[in-house]
Design goal:
This protein is of the alpha+beta class. Helices cover 24% and strands 17% of the residues. The chain has twelve helices and eleven strands. Strands 7, 8, 9, 10 and 11 form a five-stranded antiparallel beta sheet that branches. Strand 9 and strand 10 form a beta hairpin.
Length: 457
């Protein structure tokens, strides 16, 4: 985990509409800058002001719970009848959209959604460059339709039949071995060299790397699973599943106002993440548009470092609050740095406390991960929490699905992780169990597919 990473606060198309009203959002304009005001969330207007909205009906039914069932069929019948006779259009979270097409792929500079799936595939024996191109063409077409809330042709699953797009994003990337298996080793980027080994690593190779990587996110669990299910079905015999991980974040609207996410340690997580409005955001997160040479196809793309990081939650929870805060360097209640101020106050690494010691301890996470401690190294973290039950010793198998984006991992993730590996107080409470690095090409225009410049160039 890195303090320099976290969630951004804008989408390519913006925030989800609130109370059924469309809201303008952030996005990547044609010039590639983070001009987030040029597209609007596609939200239908609210229904009759005195009517019972579909969303309220469902919420009421959920609140009644088992007691409502005891009352009898009348309540359920009334709800069903109201939905049939006087339905309101989708509003709020369900109607929010993030366009699939664009200069950059969706799911990078957009805030992480409430539900996410990360999965990797290996090309099947005999599957070549042509087969890979056909697969990416199918996947891109399906992802574009789902992002607009449309049902792809031939989809009869019914999994998300009643839902809107719910800010669905689908992102595709290529692992190092993809280039060997498609005969494209001469076009493999130098930045895709294997990550160095770190002393804190305890990696399971079966849950890392892969030829093809897919990231799915949505603010509705069924919408996210629907996309996962369709992509798996459309893969056919071209690929073999390698690994899959699922995660979650706080649901939009769960707090009285938009707030920075918290991780499973209860800490505010992502305050210092670079923002699309930063003047050097494009330079540090995306490959330059004027890229030349064998990897020119990566122009507008980015590199994703994926890590499964288990948190030793039982050990962490037994620490006194004061000790937890010193390990992180921030107050747990509001995320403010121990050097003073509020959550967004810049961390003062030179501040001396009343006791004569550094306010931010020498091994505090915020100090070790800060760009100023790593020669300006920056990455955009877009993570999901996960919980996969319990281990044999009874400890929770839970933590962070860490996804970090940068224009060059050797200038972003690697120097920061090396520093964390050597002197981060938080590392005693973490276990890095899986890792992968993927080249994520730029976005595509309508009628094109992701990776076309590589596979047909």
């Amino acid at each position: 985990m890195a303090e320099t990473s976290g969630k951004t606060t804008t989408r390519r198309t913006g925030k989800a509409a609130t109370n059924g009203k469309a809201a303008k959002n952030g996005g990547n304009g044609k010039n590639g800058k983070a001009d987030m005001a040029d597209k609007a969330v596609k939200a239908e207007p609210q229904g009759k002001p005195d009517g019972l909205s579909r969303r309220r009906l469902l919420g009421t039914a959920g609140a009644v719970g088992a007691g409502g069932l005891v009352v009898g069929g009348l309540g359920g019948a009334s709800v069903a009848e109201a939905v049939r006779e006087d339905p309101d259009p989708l509003s709020g979270v369900g109607s929010a959209t993030v366009p699939f097409h664009g200069d950059h792929q969706a799911g990078i500079a957009d805030p992480a959604q409430a539900h996410g799936h990360l999965l990797a595939f290996d090309l099947a024996p005999g599957a070549d460059r042509k087969a890979a191109a056909a697969l990416l063409r199918r996947w891109s077409a399906t992802a574009a339709e789902l992002a607009e809330g449309r049902t792809p042709k031939g989809d009869d699953t019914g999994i998300a039949l009643d839902a809107g797009p719910s800010s669905l994003t689908v992102t595709f990337g290529f692992g190092r071995t993809f280039f060997d298996r498609t005969g494209l080793t001469d076009r493999r980027p130098a930045a895709l060299e294997p990550l160095p080994a770190f002393t804190q690593d305890a990696l399971d190779p079966k849950r890392g790397d892969g030829d093809l990587w897919v990231q799915i996110g949505a603010d509705d669990a069924l919408v996210a699973f629907h996309a996962l299910r369709l992509l798996r079905k459309q893969a056919g015999d071209a690929v073999r599943p390698r690994w899959e991980m699922s995660g979650f974040n706080r649901t939009p609207g769960a707090t009285p106002r938009p707030m920075t996410q918290r991780n499973l340690m209860g800490q505010v997580d992502g305050t210092n993440n670079p923002k699309p409005t930063d003047p050097d955001f494009e330079e540090k997160i995306f490959v330059p548009r004027d890229r030349k040479g064998p990897d020119a196809w990566m122009a507008g793309g980015s590199y994703a470092v994926v890590r499964r990081i288990r948190m030793l939650l039982d050990t962490w929870d037994n620490l006194p609050l004061e000790r937890q805060e010193r390990v992180i360097g921030r107050r747990k209640s509001d995320g403010a740095p121990l050097s003073g101020g509020g959550e967004t106050t810049p961390v003062d690494l030179e501040k001396i406390g009343p006791d004569g010691a550094l306010a931010i301890a020498g091994d505090a996470h915020v100090r070790v991960a800060a760009p100023s401690s790593n020669r300006g190294a920056t990455m955009l973290r877009r993570a999901f929490s996960y919980h996969d039950g319990f281990r044999d010793d009874g400890a929770p198998d839970a933590g962070l699905l860490f996804v970090a984006w940068q224009a060059d991992p050797m200038k972003g993730f690697v120097p920061v992780q090396r520093k964390l590996d050597r002197g981060d107080g938080l590392s005693r409470f973490l276990r890095h169990e899986a890792s992968g690095l993927f080249a994520v090409p730029g976005g595509c225009a309508e009628g094109e597919y992701v990776g076309q410049r590589l596979l047909e160039g």
